[in-house]
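A brief tutorial aside. Many learners find it easier to grasp structure tokens once they have seen a single protein encoded end to end. The record that follows does exactly this for Family 39 glycoside hydrolase. Read the sequence first, then the structure, and try to relate runs of similar tokens to stretches of the chain.
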Amino acid sequence: MNTPVPTALLLISLIRHSVAREVNISVSASKILGDLPPVARFFGCDEPNYATYPDGRAVLSHLGSLGPHQTYFRTHNLLTTCDPPSDTTPHRLKWGCTDAYTEDAEGRPIYNFTTTDLIFDAYLENGVKPYVQTGFMPKALSTHPDPYSFDFDGGASANNIFTGWTNLPTSWEKWGELIYQWAKHCVERYGAAEVESWYWEVWNEPNIAYWNGTEEEYFMLYDYAVDGVLRALPSATVGGPEVAGGASGDWLGLFLQHTLTGQNAATNATGSSLDFISFHAKGSPIFINATDSVPGHLRMNMATALQNVDDAFSVVQSFDALNRLPVFIGEDDPDSCAACSSPNVDYRNGLIYPSYTAAAFTREIDLAAQYSVNLTGALTWAFEYDDHPFFDGFRVLSTNQIDKPILNIFRMFGMMQGTRLEANSTGQARLEDVLAHSVQGELSDVGVLASMSAERDKLALIIWNYHDDALPKPDAEISLRISDVFPGRAAAGLTHYRIDETHSNAFSAWLNLGSPQDPTQEQIGGLKADGMLQMLHSPSTLKLKDGIADIEFDLPIHAVSLLVIE
């Protein structure tokens, strides 16, 4: 006997489909816009030690297998000092430590890279390379070391974390020598060819409380660190400055000018080596109609992050000698604090996060093309936390080895390779409108990104239905036409992947189980399967006529489809 559908759910379904929005998408396989930059393969976190734990290794193994392009990982606290007796758990929120540098009673340096080795080993064993951050200040080198370690409670304010590790070094020469010894050790352990393939950057967000010094003092920090790396490996790739807030006023421009014409504090030469440029961009979600008793509904704000990107690209473009260098958005996220939790951040568990990422990353690629900037990476600041409840609301990629939907958008991006194709959607918001107002009007953003493999035997399209508001919206009825595809062939293979409420979504599956915090092994096995990228339907044969293919399907709000035709 069929189980009756509840009247309310049936009514919602009827309403949703009765007002579905028709969207026409066209893709020309013969119109190549240029190489598609594989930006969605960079990740990071505050807490380096988690990489050595079983759950961390599990996520790293997934990141290392995202696609043919190399994945990289950036983390804070690689040089932070473990600070007993309070520092008994180095794997805690917004903290990590390695004891890479201490001093003896006479103030002589003691170098110990055992823990950093374990972290880098975990990356490399899982197919991930380090995007090395030289930071933060070891306690023995800090001009004001106490207080040093801290406990962060996951609250909205993180102001209590900026302790002794943010301060200037007691000796610039000792700081530079520490970086030299570390880079030299990495070359000896992993080989010059391997370390040449890493990125080395200096500090994090030095324009805010992460650096308790002036901008000019950061330039000194940069000069000494870069000199240390290059003394150990002259062919290493070095860069920065990882500023918060895009260009951050004059900050980025002054730093770039320093690398060209400033006096190098470490060498007394003019300028400082710079092989890549990095900055950060964050969205700014809020809650609409919230009261003391009602949380209201979540509204994302992609425009804030895109304005950061626009500002930074404008500055980079203005430097003729630097504007073709690789550019990294070194933290590129919908909100500011991954380790800050709240009962109202379920978007991190569900569909808004991946659909936001698809829409935002595509706009950033568009902005890079507009500015002729060499966008090389958009780094997602999210990893995992061991020993935390299932789906606890932190911004992470997985929970207790169960992948969240967000990880599947990167699996989709991993299948996009080769060249970008011309693609148009009648439902896609204009770049300038999203840059100014985000996606907060009546209509959702139904957009498309298309690619063709170098061998021209695989066409892939990501199509999303995004809106800033975490509210019900109509489905999009997609009519997709692809022209000039595989001329002379009568058919091609079609695989349609989907992230929605019932596909590639372990969170909705967990909710359907009653949100258990002690699931059975059988339930865990099912949730792990639900967390992987899934097909909307079985692979099928797509008919082609005169190089034209027509496909129709519905796309719910905040859902994402990947169509692979080969």
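Self-check: The chain has one domain: 15-565. If you spotted this yourself, you are ready for the next section.
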